[in-house]
Amino acid sequence: MTLTIDEVAKVALLARLRLSPEELQRFTGQLNSIVDFVAQLQALDTRDVEPLAHGIEVRNVFRDDVLGPALPREKALANAPQRNDEGFLVPAVLD
Amino acid sequence: MDFTRVTATGLLAQLNAGATTSVEVVRGYLDRADRLGRLNVFVHLEPEAALAQARVIDGKRRAGERLGPLAGVPVAIKDVLCVEGEPTTCGSRMLKNFRPPYDATVIARLKAAGAILFGKTNMDEFAMGSSTETSAYGPTLNPWDESRIPGGSSGGSAAAVAASLAPLALGSDTGGSIRQPATLCGITGLKPSYGRVSRYGLIAFASSLDQVGPFGHDLADIALLLGVIAGRDPMDSTSVDAPVPDYAATLDAPPDTLRIGLVREYFGEGLDPEIEAAIREAVRVYEAAGATTKEVSLPHAKYGIPAYYIVAPAECSSNLARYDGTIYGHRAEDFSPRSPGEEDLPPMIRMMMASRAEGFGAEVKRRIMLGTFALSAGYADQYYNQALKVRRLIRDDFDAAFKEVDVLLIPTSPTAAFKIGERIEDPLAMYLSDIYTITTNLAGIPGLSVPCGLTRSGLPIGMQLLAPAFAEENLLRTARVFERATDWHTRRPEIV
Q: Can you name the residues that pair with B263 across neighbouring β-strands?
């Protein structure tokens, strides 16, 4: 398959990446070579194969439902790009 | 002290005998780090912090207090591991000013063991790369030849040990990022089984593949460090509750059986003849030590790289979604619309898109794009789900091989260290650097890279031993058979 520049621009929006026109051009070429390369996987017949998400399959790991110490607010906010005394500040979401 | 001859095990003996102090050792390594600054091994190294830790340990040792298994030994830390309150950049502009609010579990274990945290080492950005060239802080140079890359992504940690800037280092391995740089820098490196070591506080790249592991000059040091970091952690539900053997204590016991598998698919096209010759010589060393060898097949091995380059980017695109300029990491100051169409986007979305555009480098963006594509509506079944099915076929191949043999002996890297700049413009060529390492991550099994030669031009060659999941103890003992019979692990680069 061949990804067009418009399709790559749509992926960039989904990925929340602002790409310059040059980057878009370059990534379209590179992504197409990589997608062509990985397309060899389609050649395998996997009809009866179960997908494997982890090499070591660990199931149902539970812990007791007890409250442990939480990160103190000041520590949680310490790396915020923008903040006030009690929360993270972001651009307006609603008009 | 001749630091180029130091191993952690030897250092501990000297410290315990009172022949030296941790402060003296740390001063020596700091002096070397100063002199070899041009290698660009450390992205952060605070002399006073290292000396302060050493003073505490020296005090305890003098007072006869009970000491941990690494008391006073410097360990260099790949900058992918969170250290509370210390810069942790992951090789990225995105985390330039990030100071984690907690320690990774492996860091907490090192501290409890008395280790000296000796700097944060350079790496490919978010551990994505095979050369350390994608780091936002410039490439690390290979101590054996400064015009060449040290491998990656844990290139800083491998170069730290190779250049004797620390006797031990921690790295992380998602597709070969410990074993390939260990090989290219002429040292020993282990990717443990998935779940052997906690990933809590390891900055996530591909969570089903990532694993923390040790670098050292020899197997005794690898066994020592693995023993400290291995084990179940309630903070990582994928860490496995299996007993942790005393790897260092059993290292010299010969393996009960020594059946070595040679993988048919891994000898041939693309493998440098000098490296193939070194691996064949290693096989002879094992045969002389009484091993039986057998050719085995991993029929789906050739699908390892394509499967990996769906699975890893898919997980990366999800994991790295957290870097959006809101909670921590870089936020763009100017996110006003730039191209047509952007003015229709809400300011919050534009802020995220601009922050990520400024914070991430090209390789990280490429993988996020690839993963987002592979998971997107209409393509997920064709790409992602198919890759997961192939992943099972790859693991089944290993299961079948390990019914016949105890370990597999294969190359680690198809070539010795390549030149800086040689592959950076060609992503696919770079991805093929990991052809021999990548399937072990998909299958979850351990892989150990051990030095086994030098090229005619004097560059290190390594071999890889693979074992079934959680068979690290036998893997190390098997490698020890080779180490006893050879002296490749004692070679050091000339610059130091």
A: B296
Q: Please tell me which of the candidates A11, A35, A81 has its beta carbon nearest to residue B331.
A: A81
Q: Is B452 helix (H, G, I), strand (E, B) or coil?
A: strand
Query: Which phi and psi angles does B72 have, rounded to 5°?
Result: 90, 0
Collect all residues with Cβ–Cβ distance below 8 Å to B57 and sequence separation of at least 6.
Answer: B22, B67, B71, B72, B114, B116
Is B433 annotated as catalytic? no
Active-site residue (options: B92, B130, B135, B153): B153
- Residue B305, pLDDT above cutoff 70: yes
Measured between CB atoms, does A16 come within 8 Å of chain B? yes
Lowest mean pLDDT among A30-34, B213-217, B285-289, B423-427: B423-427
Catalytic-residue membership of B153: yes
The answer to whether the Cβ–Cβ distance between B356 and A49 falls below 8 Å is: no
- Residue B325 sits at the chain A interface (C-beta within 8 Å): yes
As its CATH architecture, domain A5-41 has Orthogonal Bundle (1.10)
Q: Which of B302, B389, B391, B466 to mutate to test the interface with A (most CBs of A within 10 A)?
A: B389
Q: Which pLDDT score, from 0 to 100, does residue B428 have?
A: 86
**Most A-contacting residue of B324, B369, B434 (CB-CB within 10 A), to test interface:** B369
pLDDT of the residue at B392: 98
**pLDDT at position A95:** 66
> What radius of gyration do chain B's Cα atoms show?
22
Q: Which residue of A has its CA nearest to B399?
A: A55
- Annotated domain spans of chain B: 3-256+476-490, 323-384
pLDDT score of A94 more than 80: no
Note the pLDDT of residue B397: 98
Nearest CA to B194 out of B377, B6, B457, B447 is that of: B447
B273-287 pLDDT, tens digit per residue, is 999 999 999 999 999
How deeply is B367 buried, as exposed, middle or buried, from its count of CB atoms within 10 A (0-12, 13-18, 19+)? buried
How many angstroms separate the CA atoms of B364 and B91, rounded? 11
Q: In the predicted model, what is the mean pLDDT of residues B421-441?
A: 92
Residue type present at position B153 = S
pLDDT at A93: 83
* A22: closest CA of chain B, how far (Å): 12
CATH class of B3-256+476-490: alpha beta
Q: How far is B108 from chain A, CA to nearest CA, in Å?
A: 17
In the structure encoding, which two tokens stand for residue A24, read together? 């878009």
ipTM: 0.96
Question: Residue B495: what pLDDT?
Answer: 77
| Whole-Å CA distances, A38 to A41, B134, B354, B390 | 6, 22, 30, 12
Q: Are the C-beta atoms of B226 and B214 separated by less than 8 Å?
A: yes
Burial track B207-218 (b if 16+ CB lie within 10 A, e otherwise): bbbbbbbbbbbb
| Partner residue opposite B326 with nearest CB, options A21, A23, A88 | A88
Query: What is the per-residue pLDDT for B128?
Result: 98
CB contact set of A83 (below 8 Å; sequence gap of 6+): A77, A89
